[in-house]
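To fix ideas, we close by showing one paired sequence and structure record:
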Amino acid sequence: MITRLLVANRGEIARRVFRSCRALGISPVAVYSDPDADTPFVAEADHAVRLPGATPAQTYLRAEAVIEAARAAGADAVHPGYGFLSENAGFARAVLEAGLTWVGPSPESIEAMGSKVEAKKRVAAEGVPVLTELDPATVTEDDLPVLIKASAGGGGRGMRVVRVLADLPEEVAAARREAESAFGDGTVFCEPLLEGARHVEVQVLADSHGTVWALGERECSIQRRHQKIVEETPSPAVTPQIRERLFTAAVAAARSISYVGAGTVEFLLSAKGTIHFLEVNTRLQVEHPVTECVYGVDLVRWQLAIAEGAALPERPPTPNGHAIEVRLYAEDPAHDWRPQSGTLHRFTMSDVDAEFAVPGGYGLRLDSGVVDGTVVGVHYDPMLAKVIAWGPDRASAARRLAAALASARIHGVLTNRDLLVNVLRDKAFLAGDTDTGYLDRIGLDLLAQPLVRDVRPSALAAAIALAHAGRGRLPLGWRNVASQSQRRGFLLGEERIDVDYRFDRLGALVVPEGPQLVRASADEVVLELDGLRQSFAVSRHGEVVVVDSAQGSVSLGVVPRFPDSADKVAEGATVAPMPGTVVRVSVAEGAQVSAGEELLVLEAMKMEHRVVAAASGVLAQLVVRPGQQVEAGAVLAVVEPSEGSQS
């Protein structure tokens, strides 16, 4: 029996495994890197062991250090979570050789599916349809478009779409760097890009006694950078006939490697209804909560029970309802999905029915790795949380999830929340018309729009000014002359908004020619606009003020009364959009560059990000070099604009 379990992972998946440990009476142990020392998962563990360092290579990818931590904590079992070492056969074998229980499939099963190339050959021998594997060195014009993939991992890292043959060498090199950074293995291969297809996967669960369950399919087609952001079960495109073919192929793939534990068999589903095997993920998946809700199971609990030798019932449970999950990321979808970092000042989601567990009935589930005050760093994946709605049907689940996200209070870092809500309310999504090209087809110009579009900016500024004025018994800047007004300035993006307000002789706040004040306190203002009362929650974090309302959330900058000239950035300067490491410098100092041309590449959160010239001109100064770490806002280069060029 397992008594003390070390979770060789971090963030929300560590907290998720801890939840099942508590239910079973198992003592959870955490390992943590230096940046993770003050995070929620470390605080929630019974014991925690430090892995000195910051990057994955220094910490969570060091198998020997993780096993030594298990010994030091007195753990008798190891759960790998997902990512990091979860699909590393060498790590699984080392855990077993150390006399510990490995909560996962055998090292031999992991090895069999660890190479996507070899995995395809194995399942093809079982009659499972596969896509042709291509050697990057032999790809021709006739093979295009192709998808470059990392052989040793997933999560969108090491994946690139190539449509022009001349781009192939550079994209292969970039894919290898990302794969090496994320998985410690830079092996990549190519396969034909099946356009218009859906990404559909089957959850399997198998014991050591020969029983294999297929626990439904999940639709995971909505992806950015080949990484899923919306997942649901069942798929709106899967008919009973297709489902039978998927289940048959998934069980055959699992049996071909004597699989034990929870795993996922991934497929592409073409518009014509044909299925093509992609890979077997020999671990738990990020999107497992939707399966748990619909099938009423605790997959982590079953992982632990199977590791202890338990047998599954002969038949799996019957599905009930529909569940949709979204991944909430600290990123900016409107600017090439740029990851964000900083302090998450507030993270509040109302009406949550369960955390890290299936709700007692249809409802809302939250699996989060963060709380108020969590620092979002640059070393790891920028996912903050998974939000899951379970309802009697697809429409009700989508509506509940959209409403929960829209009303959430998320302050301090920019997220993809507004995009997720727009997707959940999109007509094409609600009609089930999704495929792996959905985001490109609908367009980020629509999907990345802010939720708050109908509230006048002046009302937002008034709410902030009045909340600020209501903080004391006497208003800030109170005057004895009723005709004098206060003025505050705010920035909504690039737009400056000024609001005037004053107190009348009775002490009432008045906004001339603006919304009518109903009431105001330090953190809430109720205004009447065109006969309609609206409530605005106001929070200030340094020089940023966040206004939350029923429509969504808006962040505004406070215009300082006395600007500091030292804060100005030199004209033509290109600054780092995020903290990161300079991977490559693409242009030499003194070279002529065009607007939009790549100047350098930054690596942040295990992904590469191109930094381009804002205007055409001469690269007058290059401040950084490859391998250098930079902070957000640091000057990287200075371009002297050519005469007549536009920024």
User: Anything to note?
Assistant: The first strand starts at residue 4 and ends at 7.
